[in-house]
Write a structure and sequence with these properties.
This is WKF domain-containing protein. About 45% of the residues lie in helices and about 0% in strands. It has 5 helices and no strands.
């Protein structure tokens, strides 16, 4: 097609495809997707297919210290994944956050929504009683200790000293 002098071709506008949704109509669960991503990463050593996904990595790094989102068996996989994390901003930020958690400087992370395999709190009230203030403090103390323990494990895996 020939253009006349000074005439511009019209740009064709393409619509982006809609994101894939599960066939059952439910909304995607980022915690389940992140755990599936870790499982695929572990399976790649056995010849499985795995593809890097920045959004999954960000989710895992953001929730690495939260046992409600990432149970212990998956946390072990995450530590192995972090060993291979290349030098850069993600690794540096992970080390910085782990140091802060190990020192107890960061508050407990909020729970993620729609987590199907959440860890049960250690001190639940029996027979439908309301939890007491001391029981709630015990649960918070145990959660803080777990966060510190996870932070130390991440620092050890990444070869970073706990003290900055």
């Amino acid at each position: 097609m020939k253009r006349k002098k000074g005439e511009r071709l019209k740009k064709k506008h393409f619509k982006r495809p809609a994101p894939k949704r599960p066939s059952n109509g439910t909304a995607p669960n980022p915690a389940v997707d992140a755990i599936r991503y870790l499982d695929e990463w572990c399976a790649q050593a056995k010849g499985g297919a795995w593809k890097f996904a920045k959004s999954r990595q960000v989710y895992l790094l953001r929730h690495a210290f939260n046992a409600d989102v990432l149970p212990e068996q998956h946390f072990k996989k995450l530590v192995s994944y972090l060993v291979g994390l290349p030098e850069g901003a993600a690794r540096a930020k992970t080390i910085e956050q782990a140091r802060a958690h190990a020192d107890g400087r960061l508050p407990q992370q909020p729970k993620a929504k729609d987590v199907s395999n959440a860890a049960a709190p250690a001190a639940e009230p029996s027979s439908g009683e309301e939890p007491t203030a001391s029981a709630a403090k015990d649960v918070e103390r145990e959660r803080a200790q777990l966060v510190q323990k996870r932070a130390r494990r991440i620092l050890k895996a990444l070869g970073a000293a706990a003290a900055s």
